[in-house]
Amino acid sequence: MEQSQYTILGMDISDDFTQVAWYQPDMQEPSSLSVAEGEEEYRIPSIICKKENQPVWLLGESAKELAVIGKGYEVRHLLKKLEKSEEFEIEGAVYTAAELLKIYFQCVLEWAMERTGGERFSYITVSTEKLTKNLIDQVFLALSLLGYDKERVRVISYTESLIYYVLSQPKELRMNDVALFDFSKDNFTYRRMNVSRGTNPTIVQVDKEDLTEEIAFPKGLSQIEREAMDEEFAKMIGREFRHGIVSTVYLTGEGFYEEWAKESMKVICSKRRVFQGYNLYVKGAAYAGYMRYSGEYFENCVFYCQERTKVDISLLVQHGQKQMPLLLSRAGTNWYEAGAIAEGILDNVSEIVFVMTSPITKQSENYKIDLHDFPVRPNKTTRVEIGLSYTSEEQCTILIKDKGFGELFKATGKAVRKMIKLQEWREE
């Protein structure tokens, strides 16, 4: 396929706003889509509204306007509805949250295709604050119903969007640590990104801190309260930035568009590059989609962050006279994509050994699963299937099944399942 023939779409979705960016390989960077030609307003209210007595749905500001005049049925907070599995009744029809998400995606995609030339997108990346299995499954399902199968869709967190965005910028911007402050009306988060030097592999680590309880949203506060908040934020920055050099700072969220951060901005801007805007996450999503679709990767990098696995997990197998690790899952993989299935024949063993290795410390520990409940057979006549999957970035499941041995020994259906909390394992 010629490079100029494909288009990548990035989407940043929250319960308040959605942003969209598109990218083609002949573009210098992803381009955010404005809600109106010639304007720099990239945030679409995350709202859909069904026209009264018509099978027509509107999006964003148009949806809000229709609801205000009482000519439609408005739906907000789709992500919260998904998490609660809520249903919504409109004109006698009941919609599940997943069905509403499909309608929302359809509205967004139709709008984006119209703005980018009317062609279907080759790949879509959806970015949001926090990923859960239910949210990921519903995003995949909704987009599959619109003709985008799982191989053409990716779901990532804001933290990972930050990584893709920063690594796609000039190298001098990440010579030291990179900080991101995200200030919305509901949350204030601080992320700090570090790219290791001289390590193999290169570790890209992002730590996240919630500042919501420390810094209040400024809208509606008195001047005295704003000044006190400004002072507190300046002190917090001073504390955080004492630990290592921060060379670049990104500010995003509507909280920074309120005029309150005067003294704290002086601290942030001292000997640092500072950028402010709304569309970092959506551009990061577009970069992530481009790299997955094109097959390009950041060479020899492990992402050590929210929503990525933290350890290499290998199966210890006998190869000739030696025991060797067979890699099942690599650290730095999106947890919902991590895992593997392997088969083997038991050879004088009553337990199966897994090796957990940290890419940062290089330390390894063995995790053993006993097979004493498996059927007793002659040696080398028991075939087993070993499956590894993740339910979150901190929890994986190992399932070992008896597969018998052809016609000689039928499979019994016996299985051993172990759930491993990797955070606890790493702390032991």
Straight-line N-to-C gap:
50 Å
Low-confidence stretches: none
What shape does the CA trace take? globular
Helical content stands at: 10-25%
Would you kindly provide a written description of the structure presented here, covering whatever features stand out?
Helix content is 25%, strand content 35%. The chain has nine helices and 25 strands. A hairpin with a 2-residue loop joins strand 23 and strand 24 (395-402). Helix 5 (158-167) crosses helix 8 (280-294) and helix 6 packs parallel to helix 7. The protein is globular.
A few lines on this structure:
With 428 residues, the chain is an alpha+beta fold.
Secondary structure layout:
Layout: E1 8-13, E2 17-23, E3 31-32, E4 44-45, E5 48-51, E6 57-59, H1 60-68, E7 72-75, H2 78-84, E8 87-90, E9 93-96, H3 97-116, E10 123-128, H4 133-145, E11 153-157, H5 158-167, E12 177-183, E13 188-195, E14 202-210, H6 223-241, E15 246-252, H7 263-269, E16 273-276, H8 280-294, E17 301-304, E18 312-319, E19 322-329, E20 339-345, E21 351-357, E22 364-370, E23 383-392, E24 395-402, E25 415-421, H9 422-427
Parallel strand pairs: 1-10, 10-11, 12-15, 14-17, 15-16
Antiparallel strand pairs: 1-2, 2-3, 2-4, 5-6, 5-7, 8-9, 12-13, 13-14, 18-19, 18-21, 20-23, 21-22, 23-24, 24-25
